[in-house]
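To the wet lab folks,

You asked to see what we're planning to order before we commit. Fair enough. Below is the target structure as tokens, and below that is the sequence we designed to fit it. If anything looks off to you, flag it before the synthesis order goes out.
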């Protein structure tokens, strides 16, 4: 079985797409439990903040891009929002625990009509897309004018002290926990390293703007280790 290893360069292009899909299929059975452990239970708070950032009324229709097992879909439903989830990992979708409709698809080619959604969320998946600008373009296409975008993801703190602590936890403890709890140390070495795929915060906001969004911004929280990218469809 092909495995991502820390001493290999991060995969690119089609190779990345294949490797990431295999990895998430493999991680699916333990994914939710590992998320709780790795985030020290803060992932729930991060998802709620993402939903709140949409500022959409109950009854809105929102796409959860890279929905995984459906946690964000459930948070959206808890806010009275009609959620639809999409993910390219069959393994993750098979493990989903949500009543929301789920679709298997690639974020670069979304199977929805133009302007179909009032909002779009994405949880910890920006760094797993092969061509982020293409995905942002698809996000813009399926959102109505004035539709809201909110994506939460991991990032590296700018503060040196927080950055050192982040490295100890995510690059030291997390792979060990991955080996002990999920029996997949290689995947949990890759996941912290994959933040290297993301552009700088300024460039991330610019990329979203170029896709057709305005009022784009990036906020960070939890000591600068988590980012929230927001924008409004023009």
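Sequence we intend to order:
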């Amino acid at each position: 079985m092909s495995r991502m290893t820390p001493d290999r360069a991060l995969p690119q292009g089609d190779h990345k797409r294949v490797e990431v899909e295999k990895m998430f299929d493999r991680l699916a059975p333990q994914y939710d439990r590992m998320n709780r452990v790795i985030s020290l239970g803060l992932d729930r708070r991060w998802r709620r903040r993402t939903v709140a950032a949409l500022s959409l009324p109950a009854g809105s229709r929102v796409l959860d891009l890279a929905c995984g097992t459906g946690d964000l879909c459930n948070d959206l439903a808890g806010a009275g929002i009609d959620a639809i989830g999409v993910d390219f990992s069959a393994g993750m979708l098979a493990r989903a625990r949500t009543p929301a409709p789920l679709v298997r698809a690639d974020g670069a080619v979304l199977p929805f009509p133009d302007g179909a959604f009032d909002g779009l969320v994405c949880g910890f998946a920006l760094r797993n897309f092969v061509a982020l600008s293409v995905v942002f373009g698809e996000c813009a296409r399926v959102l109505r004018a004035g539709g809201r975008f909110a994506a939460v993801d991991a990032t590296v703190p700018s503060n040196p002290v927080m950055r050192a602590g982040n490295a100890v936890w995510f690059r030291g403890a997390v792979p060990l926990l991955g080996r002990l709890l999920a029996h997949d140390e290689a995947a949990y070495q890759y996941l912290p390293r994959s933040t290297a795929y993301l552009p700088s915060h300024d460039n991330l906001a610019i990329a979203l703007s170029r896709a057709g969004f305005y009022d784009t911004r990036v906020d960070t929280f939890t000591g600068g280790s988590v980012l929230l990218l927001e924008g409004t469809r023009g």
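Structural context that might help your review: The longest helix spans residues 160-182. The two ends are 44 Å apart (CA to CA).

Thanks,
Computational group
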